[in-house]
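Pilot study result, target chain (153 residues):
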Amino acid sequence: YVTLGEYDFHHTRDCFRGNCAHKPVEMEVLFVKKHPLYRTKNFVSHDVCLVRLLSNVQFTDYIQPICLPSTLETDEKNLYNKTMTIAGWGTMENHPQTVLPHVLQELDVVVKPSGVCDSIELDWESQICAAGTGPAKSPCPGDSGGPLMYYNT
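Predicted structure:
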């Protein structure tokens, strides 16, 4: 199963500023297709997959689709200095005893030329170099494979 419409794992109903979401929806998975180049040896690469659900999703104010980018939108040069948002439930500190957050975490990042990230040992042909907008702001362990999003009007 996958859970849709969940924001806070510790509360039955997710409420924000007096507005409460409908109960999260559990959907049965038909299949999961990993990226053919996915690997975890030495470092994570191509950590993305497609999930096919058994039935159609009923969209609500709290459950919405997100568009996949076009080829033009994934050209790294077209993304430089664009502010994007990452989201995840990864650990908030780099310690093994750290408890996972119960609320979905978000962080604004700015896309940089891959040369800025050359000191980090990754396959930059399959990654986007992005940095947090403030000190000590970065994705956390467990956020890998999560969304990198921007609002395109």
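One observation from the pilot: Helices lie at 71-74, 76-79. A full batch analysis is planned for the follow-on phase.
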